[in-house]
Amino acid sequence: MNNPLNIPKKQKLTKKGQETRSRIIVAAAELMYEQGVARTTIEDVQNKAKISASQMYHYFKEKKELVQEVISYQTLRVIGTHKRYLSNLDSFEALYAWRDFIVNIQIKRNCEGGCPLGSLASELVEINSDAQQEIMSSFFEWEDSIKKGLRYMLNQGELNSDADPDKLALALLAALQGGLLLTQVRRDPTPIIIALDTMIEHIHSFKKI
What residue stretches are annotated with the HTH tetR-type domain (predicted)? Predict the structure, then answer.
């Protein structure tokens, strides 16, 4: 396979080795998203990636190391997808386009699965300090991406001087995560729609007249 998400590469691996390593990470990420980290065994990953036990051990000595790579992979995938919208966040129209993108994903998934990063966080942050730090950094990166968009709107005159892009970005990310969780629990997109619309309406209250 190629490496469309720029999965971090290890030095001294051949091209085939890099591809095998990436395939293992993608297989592990899919399994851990579908059935959880605890329920995903090394053997499950081997079978999905179609590799031998010796190949697995060659690339990953223990499951903990693989989990760290899964977090990095999901960070690249999730934030990379959202950046298509957040990198062009220059208006309220753009903000609603991002909202529609998020809602449509949940509708297509029948509200199953939730946020890949949120799912990892709920399972790992209390039991794995390394994972907690990695996931925290991932959410800071996501939050910073939102901040940049709102700061751009402020600088472009879309928002008035009372707007605080840092606080608004954190509140919007919190609304997003909470909305996704309740949408997953209820199997209904209404929570994520209400959460995002309420926050965007609040941001709109700072619209420059």
Answer: 18-78
